[in-house]
Amino acid sequence: MKTNSSRFEISVLLGTQTLFNIGFYAVVPFLAVVLTQDFLLASTAVGLILGIRTFAQQGLFLAGGSLADRFGARFMILIGCAVRAAGFLMLAASLWSGSPMLWLFILGTLFTGFGGALFSPGLNILVAAAQSARDQQRTTEAKRATLFAWLSITGEIGAVTGPLVGAVLWGWGFSTVAGFGAAFFVAIGIFLALALRKPAPAGRQRRPAAHTSAAPRRPGSWRQCLKDRRFLAFCGLHAADLLAYNQLYLAIPLELERLDYPAQWLGMIFAWISVLTLTLQLPVSWIAARIGARATLRCGYLLSALGFGVFAFIPASLFGQDAGMPRILCAITLLTLGHMSVHPTALSLVPQFAGERPTGSYFGLLSSCGGLAVLLGNILIGWLLVQAGRQAVPSFLPWLVLILPLLLASWRAADVVRGLGTAIRRS
After folding, report:
1. Which of these, 92, 169, 277, 351, could form a disulfide with 179 (CB 3.0-4.6 Å)?
2. Where residue 409 falls among pLDDT bands split at 50, 70, 90?
């Protein structure tokens, strides 16, 4: 009976990631279109607003994780759903009057980011607890893909489905699209309030306090997290992965533009990434479970570095006469394989870093460091790509700037993980 209950909860958590991404990607990909067409903003202003939205989410993950430690993961997931629903409702309301209200639209974009910062750490906490329980029940079985690998797959299903839903609703206007997103997140919140088990009383806890959403949380957990030098080092190294993967939204589109490919090719690239994720995430994770976290991190960061190395050091002539797209797809494939290797691995290591401490702040800090790296790194990368286009700097320099942090992570992250067990036993 207990096993069936835990299986149901795992199914709910994984399905929740799909639902979150359907609601998110049904709306957010159309924000740039609305800002350009309805609010008549220049591309620079559009990029600034969307960049602030991303940082509002990634930068507040530490706060969201700390709140989840204090008030419980389940509660913060429900609050996050409500905040994101309010954000989508603001987006819809900004176009209801005869004169579009930019301030309300911007506020709505910020609320969508705040909502994600509130519910994502909570979801990670519950998935980590479910993974720990599954590991304890199946210690004699062969190692297999972690729940975080399944989380990537279910999230990708939502990321593929969401834009299709948004495109179907687009004929009724963006207000309908955003209104659907608001109603969808309200429905998700109601579903989770009924489906997720309420926390048990503290006296009935059978698992360590650090790994349950219901356990009493010590205040100030984010301070403990920031004092953990080993984990800070890991966060700084792993930030290279999010910075690298974020180039799908910056460097790759600029490379397509440089090669005079139409914008529609970007859709094909993202479709290819979805195919890779849905078909290879589990095999990659099975291999990772067998070779261990240290080898997976080394290989994963190195694969991403090789992807950018295709742009930096491999002559285009090696890919044939029309080398542009085959070269880009080769680089994207390596980058995606690297991300599929290290991202679930890093998430699965967070509870080990936390030990007996609450995990929410740890998950939050990992994401916030990545968000800060993207915010600062994209400024430099964007400038270098523009200068490389004007031949003011060598063409390989922007890619080299992306390669070096990945090589450093490949070299040092495994050493941080190697001392992990000893550090936990001493804490």
Report:
1. 92
2. very high
